[in-house]
Write a structure and sequence with these properties.
Helix content is about 40%, strand content about 15%. It has about 550 residues and is an alpha/beta fold. The chain has an eleven-stranded mixed beta sheet with strand order 1-3-2-6-8-7-12-15-11-9-10, sandwiched between helices. A two-stranded antiparallel sheet has the order 4-5. A two-stranded antiparallel ribbon has the order 13-14.
């Protein structure tokens, strides 16, 4: 028998004994930085703690480190009361599902109809209100999850400045990664990634247009799923591009990400892209099983990797090679391939959000029930930002807004949805170019890339991708600063990830692939962040260890 399959059978037997009769001898409930959603549900079911205890512990952990990390913009003032209500429901009716009573953070562009703000990191929207919960927030609440607070983000999802800092917003301050002093957290779902990495919540929700889930997950040693366009609703989420924006889970393990994903997918009348083209939704956690990968073909587009090799620290490529070796040992076939029309795809993935942003932003603003600064268009937001010192203009410019407005003036004319008038320019690339071409030509399950270069390919195509940890920069790695020069991008101990890029609606296969690599590599367990909260659950002796 495959040694890893034998290990899986043994682990399954141990976990069965945990669920049936309590922890096996030598097992202990993990610290919150490592606790999975399954761990949390076990503790809740066994009465080791309740959701109120859990919320209070996470809030205390946020209080401990948020002054240094700026991962959370604001707590939900009703979180403790919501937890108490869900505790009562658990006792009287039983749990709704695997997220019942589990605290989750939302990126600060996902609207909630409660006491929390939704600002995209700008004071322009402080105090604005919405008519209802966003569909993502509603689905999480329906699943029993507790929305613990809002995570900080790169302002306007990194769609404002060329001279930006990842993780900076006027409303939330500068988010920092926890693995190195002054670490660039990447973005734009910066706070979501950092919060998950140090255990400030069980999981978080991020959004991605062009790398905003994958990139911060990469640098913070966690799992992130960039979903297929149309799988998750963008209703009442502050947008960039309706043709590229997606919503996805960020978690410490692949299985946790799969559990959160299950709760947020599905059709929504408020988002026309979640349509009848969506296939039957599988049970994503069924993909979380260890098995031989002989039926999986993984393509490696060496043309991209070699073309960008000078931009990589050699240790990143070495870690990538080790992951490929593990996949081969698991039975997967590694196939050399190429991505055609790579240059054109790179150009298209910038053009689409330029075309969409003015109209999509105005659409969101038009739905506000309270709009304190009466900003309804991108030109008005531009002028307001010019006039507000807290927005740090011109130190942080508004290049992307100016470029979007110029595109509309030059090419779109009266067409408010400029995407349609530009579709002929790049629509064919989505079909015959990009990463779809090698997937079909070489009959591949997925492509694999270092996450540093992975986000460029699934944004404009609307396809799925997933990232998970593959290693850490070694002690002799050079320190490299971010483009602005104020944050550390690479340095000893900072995490790095590997991504798998698939077809549309391929989340199940990608989860299966990532789960099997995660189980065999166990990268996250190798190193802890330098900044870790000390608050833990106060567990009865019977729940701590046996």
């Amino acid at each position: 028998m495959d040694p890893m399959l034998l290990l899986f059978v043994t682990a399954t037997s141990i976990w069965a004994s945990v669920v049936a009769g309590g922890p096996p001898r030598g097992w202990r409930f993990p610290d919150l930085i490592d606790a999975t959603i399954s761990d949390i549900q076990w503790g809740l079911e066994k009465g080791c703690f309740n959701s109120t205890d859990l919320v209070k512990a996470y809030l205390a952990r946020i209080f401990e480190v948020n002054g240094r990390l700026r991962a959370v913009t604001e707590d939900n003032p009703d979180a403790v009361a919501i937890a108490a209500s869900l505790d009562k429901e658990r006792l009287t009716k039983g749990p709704r599902g695997p997220l019942h009573g589990v605290p989750i953070l939302l990126k600060n562009n996902i609207a909630t109809k409660d006491k929390m703000n939704n600002t995209a990191g700008s004071y322009a929207l402080l105090g604005a209100t919405v008519p209802r919960d966003s569909t993502i927030a509603r689905k999480l609440r329906d699943a029993g999850a507790i929305i613990l607070g809002k995570s900080n983000m790169s302002q306007w999802s990194n769609w404002r400045s060329r001279n930006f800092s990842n993780g900076w917003s006027s409303h939330g301050g500068q988010t920092l990664g926890a693995y190195y002093q002054n670490q660039d957290p990447e973005g734009s779902s910066s706070g979501s990634a950092v919060a998950v990495s140090v255990g400030l919540a069980a999981a978080a929700i991020g959004t991605e247009t062009l790398g905003s889930v994958l990139a911060p997950a990469n640098r913070n040693g966690i799992v992130g799923i960039k979903t297929t366009l149309g799988l998750t609703s963008r209703d009442l989420i502050i947008p960039i591009s309706e043709h590229m924006d997606t919503v996805g889970p960020m978690a410490r393990t692949v299985e946790d990400a799969a559990q959160v994903l299950q709760a947020i997918v599905g059709e929504d009348p408020h988002d026309r892209f979640t349509s009848t083209t969506m296939p039957t939704i599988p049970k994503y956690t069924d993909a979380c099983r260890l098995r031989n990968l002989a039926d999986m073909r993984i393509g490696i587009p060496w043309d991209l990797i070699k073309g960008l090799e000078e931009d990589f620290v050699s240790s990143e490529l070495q870690a990538f090679f080790k992951m490929l070796a593990i996949l081969e040992e698991a039975g997967a076939q590694i196939v050399d391939t190429t991505i055609p029309k790579a240059t054109e795809i790179m150009q298209a993935q910038i053009l689409v959000p330029f075309a969409d942003f003015p109209a999509n932003l105005a659409s969101y603003l038009s739905q506000l029930t309270t709009n304190p600064n009466n900003i309804t268009t991108l030109p008005q937001l531009r002028e307001w930002t010019h006039s507000q010192p807290l927005e740090e203009y011109p130190g942080r410019d508004i290049y992307y807004w100016d470029a979007a407005l110029q595109l509309h003036a030059d090419e779109c004319g009266s067409n408010t949805h400029c995407y349609a008038s530009n579709k002929a320019r790049y629509g064919h690339l989505v079909v015959v170019g990009g990463h779809f071409a090698p997937l079909e030509a070489d009959k591949l399950t997925a492509l694999a890339l270092p996450t540093s270069i992975a986000p460029f390919w699934t944004g404009v195509t609307g396809a799925a991708s997933i990232t998970l940890p593959m290693g850490y920069y070694p002690e002799d790695a050079p320190v490299q600063l971010s483009r602005r020069g104020d944050l550390v991008n690479t340095a000893p101990g900072i995490p790095m990830g590997i991504s798998f890029l698939g077809r549309k609606w391929s989340e199940y296969e990608l989860i299966e692939l990532a789960y099997n690599l995660e189980a065999r590599s166990r990268v996250r367990q190798r190193r802890k962040p330098k900044i870790v909260p000390s608050t833990e659950l106060n567990l009865p002796r019977a729940c701590r260890a046996r």
